[in-house]
């Protein structure tokens, strides 16, 4: 089935609403009866949506980030618009770099009140990988090294950045970091290898 712009927008809105449900379900402190009632409603919604399903999540076009990059820093690329499990980011491109701002909520907790290190790694993989994709290069992560320099808080704005460090044949090295109040909490360096394919 063709994915029209209207369907894309509807899928995007549905996923955004699902994220709201995920957070609300995780932190709700309602009475038992109300939680059970909500569970029944959600189970019914899942049945309704599942009556006709694609085998995979809608894929954003490969050249989407490159198109956003050429449109300039005011045209961000929305990451994980169609997958509620992904951490949604608006990635802005500026020259050879990328930036995003995120205020992680309770869903992303690892140590108490802090961002889970696995989510930090995922965020960095995305910031580096999408920046490479925005250069029009088809590449996958071969290695990703992280340094957790200090705790990364929840519920506070974080600045995410990435830039290309080196290109040598098929090998692209990119680096990135997470900042809180101007101080780096996480640094990452990744090796990406260009691959064939569509
Ligand atoms: C259509 C899709 C669109 C892609 C659209 C974009 C998708 C976004 C992706 C988001 C990021 C991800 O999550 S990606 C998903 C996670 N990553 C993966 O699943 C990748 C799994 N690994 C692989 O498929 C493979 O190992 C590759 C492609 C990475 C490399 O295999 P290969 O193509 O056979 O290349 P190979 O000859 O081994 O290596 C090439 C050069 O890289 C070096 N090299 C290779 N791996 C490493 C490594 N880990 N550490 C150091 N160096 C390495 C080699 O020494 C060599 O250097 P030299 O001798 O030339 O000097």
TrEMBL record:
EC identifiers of the protein: 3.1.2.2
Membrane topology label: Peripheral membrane protein
Domain Thioesterase residues, every copy: 115-186
Transmembrane segments: none
Statement: the UniProt record of this protein carries the keyword rRNA-binding: no
Keywords in alphabetical order: Apoptosis, Cell membrane, Cell projection, Cytoplasm, Fatty acid metabolism, Hydrolase, Lipid metabolism, Membrane, Transit peptide
GO MF term set: hydrolase activity
Catalysed reaction, written as an equation: hexadecanoyl-CoA + H2O = hexadecanoate + CoA + H(+); (5Z,8Z,11Z,14Z)-eicosatetraenoyl-CoA + H2O = (5Z,8Z,11Z,14Z)-eicosatetraenoate + CoA + H(+); decanoyl-CoA + H2O = decanoate + CoA + H(+); tetradecanoyl-CoA + H2O = tetradecanoate + CoA + H(+)
Cross-referenced InterPro entries: HotDog_dom_sf (IPR029069), THEM4/THEM5_acyl-CoA_thioest (IPR052365), Thioestr_dom (IPR006683)
Entry's family note: Belongs to the THEM4/THEM5 thioesterase family.
Name the record gives this protein: Acyl-coenzyme A thioesterase THEM4
Species of provenance: Sphaerimonospora cavernae
Record lineage: Bacteria, Bacillati, Actinomycetota, Actinomycetes, Streptosporangiales
């Amino acid at each position: 089935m063709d994915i029209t712009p209207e369907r894309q927008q509807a899928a995007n809105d549905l996923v955004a609403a699902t994220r709201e449900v995920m957070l609300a379900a995780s932190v709700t402190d309602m009475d038992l009866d109300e939680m059970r009632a909500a569970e029944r409603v959600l189970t019914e919604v899942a049945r309704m949506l599942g009556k006709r399903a694609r085998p995979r999540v809608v894929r954003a076009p490969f050249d989407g980030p490159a198109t956003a990059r050429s449109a300039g820093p005011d045209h961000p690329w929305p990451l994980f618009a169609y997958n509620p499990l992904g951490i949604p980011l608006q990635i802005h491109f500026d020259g050879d770099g990328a930036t995003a701002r995120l205020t992680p909520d309770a869903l992303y907790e690892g140590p108490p009140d802090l961002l889970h290190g696995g989510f930090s790694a995922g965020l960095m993989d995305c910031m580096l990988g999408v920046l490479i994709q925005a250069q029009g290069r088809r590449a996958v992560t071969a290695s990703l090294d992280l340094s957790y320099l200090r705790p990364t808080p929840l519920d506070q704005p974080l600045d995410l950045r990435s830039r290309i460090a080196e290109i040598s044949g098929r090998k692209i090295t990119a680096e990135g970091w997470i900042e809180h109040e101007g101080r780096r909490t996480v640094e990452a360096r990744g090796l990406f290898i260009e691959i064939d394919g569509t």
